[in-house]
Structures are given as C-alpha cells and as structure tokens.
Amino acid sequence: MKNLKVSIFTAVIVLIVGLYDIAYAYNRRYRNHNHGVTPFMILGVIFTISGLALIIMHWVR
C-alpha cells in the first residue's frame, strides 16, 4: 500500500458523488414516502467515506 498513488481529483469526485447520493436519498424520502431510499443512502455513505479516505491517503503520501 505504500506505492499507491491517489489523485486528488479522483478523491474529490468520489466525495462529491457520495454527498450527491446522500442528498438525493434525503430529498427522495419525502416524495416517495421512504420507498427506495435505502440503496441510495448506503451508496452515499460508502462513497463519502471512500472519498474522505482517499483524500487522507493523498495528504499522508
């Protein structure tokens, strides 16, 4: 894992996608009465955590 190079551009895009999925799931919750929100929320959390981890890995390098 020491030779893993992380692009800051990729890390920011993954973080933005995660935050967008969370916002989409939050707004969809009120329109569809909480149907079909869980997959978007799970993906949003995964992408957000991954984006933060990539940014930290970029700074540590």
UniProtKB/TrEMBL annotation:
Keyword annotations: Membrane, Transmembrane, Transmembrane helix
Q: Where are the transmembrane segments?
A: 6-26, 38-60
This chain's protein is named: Immunity protein
Query: Which species does the entry assign this protein to?
Result: Lactobacillus kullabergensis
